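Why does residue order matter? Because the sequence determines the fold. Keep that principle in mind as you read this record.
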Amino acid sequence: KTQIISLPVRKEDLMYKIKTAKAELFQRSNTNPSDLEISVYTGIPLKMIEDTHSYDFSIASIDADVNNNSGQTLGDMLADVNQSPEDEVLREDKRKQIVNLVQMLPHNERIVIQNRYCLFSSEKKTLRQIGKILCLSPETVRQTEKRAIKKMRVVVDANSELYAI
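Structure:
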């Protein structure tokens, strides 16, 4: 859910007075009053009235439906400025290449790399945790990790045209 950011009470009161004056002046002349006319009518300095335009805006929830019952929200329509679709495709391609490299490793090395670098889970395991899984000491797990990385690096270096990692 989104949070509502409130204006200070004095600014809300000022905006209310200006909107009320605007409505009253509109009823009298049947035209939208200028900021100067509102200033004269309310006694509020013109500069203050002009400043209220900077914080007089409508706020909508990013989770609100854009059209009734369409299921599309405002958030769905906003561009993701952090990442382009091309970046997403490239990242996924690199991930597949790494997974393929890891699949070539012997069993213990594969288990170590998968758990140390979160290839199939979101939790990075410690050397001790992986050691318990494989019934190895943390030092043996560290050496296994180092050996696996060295093997993968050799494959990537030998096939640099295939791997853009």
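Helices lie at 9-29, 35-42, 46-52, 74-77, 85-103, 107-116, 127-134, 138-158.
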